[in-house]
Amino acid sequence: MDNSVQKLKKQLAICRGDLAAALKREEQLQAEVDSLLRARQADAALQCWEPAVIQKAHERVVSQQPVQSEWRLRTLREALRDNKVFRESKARSLRSTNERLDAEDAHLHAYVARYGGAWKSYRPHQRRSADNKDGVRA
């Protein structure tokens, strides 16, 4: 039983780490999307008449984009959707693992309250005999 609690705690830590990594990845993707949207606006601004100083600034922003921004933007939005699905699945996994851990913890506390910490005599899958109601073989 103690081993299952440790496994659940380990799974919980892994889920939290995966969720944190997914959130960080989502922030990075969103920052790149914002950058591409700024480049797209600068490209659109180049199409109209502007003073030379502003036009040069817009040209610098547009020239920094090696790939056509529309394709990259589509790819990033797909990655954001995939990341959202992954994050939601990890959140569900985190909730279910947390619920299982709470159930195991409650079961463990109930056992300690009943048997006073006699761990060696605990066998969760052992059948209880009619003459021995505690389920512990003599």
Could you give a quick summary of the protein structure above?
The protein has helices at residues 2-46, 52-63, 69-115.
Distance between the termini: 21 Å
Give the percentage of residues in beta strands: under 5%
Q: Considering DSSP H and I runs of 4 or more, what fraction of the residues is helical?
A: over 70%
Strand count: 0
Q: Identify low-pLDDT runs.
A: 126-132
Helix/strand/pairing class, anyone? Answer: mainly alpha
Main sheet?
none
Based on CA inertia axes, which overall geometry fits?
rod-shaped
Number of domain modules: 1
Q: Helical region count?
A: 3
The gyration radius over C-alpha positions equals 29 Å
Mean pLDDT: 78
Q: Helix and strand string, N-terminal first?
A: HHH
Write out key terms for the chains shown.
138 residues, rod-shaped
Describe the 3D structure.
- It is a single chain.
- By secondary structure, the chain is mainly α.
- The protein has helices at residues 2-46, 52-63, 69-115.
- The longest helix has 47 residues, at 69-115.
List the helices and strands and how they pair.
Layout: H1 2-46, H2 52-63, H3 69-115
Helix pairs in contact: 1-2, 1-3
